[in-house]
Write a structure and sequence with these properties.
The protein has 228 residues and is α/β, with parallel strands linked by helices. The chain has eight helices and nine strands. The strands form two sheets. Strands 3-2-1-4-5-9-8 form a seven-stranded mixed sheet.
């Protein structure tokens, strides 16, 4: 008997979380994505509630990939198979292109992460990869304090990450990650001056335990507000 394909099963928890958060009323004129990577999936939900989006990353290669996609350059990655489950995805792609105003270099380990660029204080930040960028727990705490300066008072940080990750694989290459315990996100955000509004934890799905791309034990997704 042929198994019926379920497209929802292919949607990762992080995509579901981003979709729910940005449709729940989290909105503002300017949104900054910290550590965009070469990906665009996070913008499909964000463009519904943000007029302007700034994409950022530390590596030049990721920035180049984003620029290639934005400008429809030869060799740009085709995201159609990934986003085709989104309603009116072709129109959404163009909407995302219009929303992304700039692609900038970012280093979360610097006190001014976007230096030398100075942006208006944003209504929201997305950061989905701090444990990959920060070598120590203190560096992660410092990064959260630095990111806070990019937000306006009352602005929101949408943060996700993984628990107890020591490595992840990309294209056959192994990269180190900072293993975080379940207490760390809450404690570090409170120390950095954030108020946690929503926090979800998800255990690693049983079917992924044979996946050797990473050794994480679970995921967290949260929304925090800059407290002043």
């Amino acid at each position: 008997m042929k198994r019926k394909h379920n497209p929802v099963a292919r949607i990762s928890p992080i995509k579901i979380f981003c979709h729910q958060i940005f449709l729940s009323g989290l909105e503002g004129k300017l949104l900054i994505d910290i550590g965009s990577g070469p990906t665009i999936y996070q913008f499909f939900s964000a463009c519904e509630s943000s007029q302007e989006i700034i994409a950022t990353d530390y590596t030049d290669k990721n920035l180049q990939e984003l620029e290639k996609w934005l400008k429809k350059m030869p060799g740009a990655f085709n995201w159609s198979p990934v986003v085709k489950y989104v309603d009116k995805w072709a129109e959404k792609e163009e909407r995302v292109r219009r929303a992304i105003r700039r692609v900038l270099k970012c280093d979360v380990l610097k006190e001014r992460p976007l230096e030398p660029v100075v942006l208006p204080a944003s209504a929201g930040l997305i950061s989905l990869c701090l444990e990959a960028a920060c070598p120590t727990p203190q560096a992660c705490r410092d990064a959260l304090r630095y990111l806070r300066t990019l937000l306006r008072p009352g602005g929101h940080l949408v943060l996700s990450g993984s628990f107890e990750t020591t490595f992840f694989m990309v294209g056959g290459k192994r990269f180190p990650a900072l293993p975080l315990n379940e207490k760390f996100p809450r404690e570090a955000l409170q120390e950095a001056g954030f108020i946690i509004k929503k926090l979800e934890k998800v255990a690693r799905a049983a079917e992924t335990h044979l996946d050797n791309h990473s050794d994480y034990t679970g995921l967290f997704f949260l929304v925090a507000q800059r407290g002043d």
